[in-house]
Design the sequence.
């Protein structure tokens, strides 16, 4: 059943997951948002598996140099085949520049872990005019995924499909239904509208952004050819000890989150295993198009699989491609060349 069930959540939180151990000596992997938290710990796991190349991103050059390429990941994994590049998801130009640089360097990517994300209830806009959570967690993640798709396809072999792992959350189960969505001329414009984004709407924004990611995975995966050259999945890392909620200013909420973390949270290292597993372990075809929790496919939220949810998902895909095509002309070409119409 596609619901948030407290007993299942508690059970998963306590589950000890095996450490990923695949041979990735001939694989090149990209981790987005790797300076702290789950992305950092996933990078350490990957580095310890000694990939051909590990490319990690942080928001700016300083964070890249100091936190990633400098001391942490390299010291803990004691290898040097790690590169760091700046990538700011609050800017479409930064995503395009990142992809341009990857292309100039001819980086042959086998797996991408799209991990970067924010959790905030404040309405702010990015330089591109989109509500920040909507752009960082959804639109820019979608742009990066589509621009990198040809590279993932190129690296794929019949024995091993490339992987695209988008880090979602079980909080997508708790996202509110989009009441009245059938009357909205544009879903994305409505979600961006400051008049619509009241404090109660914004209190759900993170959950909704994670639902949008699940829908994106479903739409993208269903448009790839069969057998797929790229195994696409959404993962739930579980509730972890990271600083994701650092922008929370309400002292009661902060106390509540801190208490829940003390009682329930997984270590960030344990949560990070859920990101690494679908990116490197065999069996990728059985995970294609799936929402994964504790390494296993799990049903998405009831809303996602409802008639309304499917229609929202389909419209959202079309709108997303439309918005992103206006941002970067490569998007429509990639969609036309590599994805099937539905
Ligand atoms: N922790 C949990 O309990 C939990 C549960 C379910 C899902 N998740 C998901 O797991 C992912 C990682 O979260 P986390 O818990 O590791 O949180 P975190 O410690 O706050 O890490 C988030 C990462 O995303 C980066 N980031 C944020 N905004 C960005 C932007 N505009 N452009 C580029 N990078 C940006 C951060 O960079 P800076 O350090 O520069 O901000 C950081 O590297 C997120 O997608 C989150 O939704 C987490």
Sequence:
């Amino acid at each position: 059943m596609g619901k948030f069930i407290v007993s299942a959540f508690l059970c998963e939180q306590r589950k000890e997951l095996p450490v990923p151990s695949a041979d990735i000596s001939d694989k090149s992997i990209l981790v987005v948002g790797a300076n702290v938290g789950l992305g950092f710990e996933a990078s350490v796991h990957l580095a310890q598996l000694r990939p051909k190349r590990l490319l990690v991103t942080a928001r700016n050059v300083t964070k890249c140099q100091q936190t990633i390429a400098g001391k942490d990941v390299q010291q803990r994994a004691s290898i040097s085949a790690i590169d760091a590049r700046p990538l700011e998801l609050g800017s479409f130009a930064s995503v395009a520049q990142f992809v341009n640089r990857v292309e100039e360097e001819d980086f042959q990517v086998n797996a991408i872990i799209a991990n970067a994300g924010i959790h905030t209830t404040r309405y702010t806009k990015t330089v591109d005019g989109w509500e920040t959570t909507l752009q960082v967690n959804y639109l820019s993640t979608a742009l990066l995924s589509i621009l990198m798709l040809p590279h993932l396809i190129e690296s794929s072999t019949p024995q091993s499909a490339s992987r695209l792992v988008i880090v979602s959350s079980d909080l997508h189960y708790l996202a509110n239904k989009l009441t009245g969505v059938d009357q909205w001329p544009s879903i994305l414009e409505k979600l961006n509208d400051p008049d619509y984004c009241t404090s109660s709407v914004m209190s759900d924004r993170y959950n909704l952004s994670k639902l949008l990611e699940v829908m994106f995975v479903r739409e993208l995966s269903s448009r790839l050819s069969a057998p797929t050259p790229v195994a696409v999945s959404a993962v739930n890392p579980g509730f972890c000890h990271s600083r994701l909620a650092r922008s929370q200013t309400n002292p009661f909420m902060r106390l509540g989150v801190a208490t829940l973390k003390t009682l329930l949270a997984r270590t960030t290292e344990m949560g990070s295993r859920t990101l690494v597993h679908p990116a490197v372990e065999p069996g990728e075809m059985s995970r294609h198009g799936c929402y994964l929790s504790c390494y296993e496919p799990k049903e998405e939220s009831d809303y996602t699989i409802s008639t309304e949810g499917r229609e929202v998902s389909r419209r959202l895909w079309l709108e997303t491609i439309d918005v992103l095509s206006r941002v970067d002309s490569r998007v429509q070409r990639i969609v036309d060349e590599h994805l099937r119409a539905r």
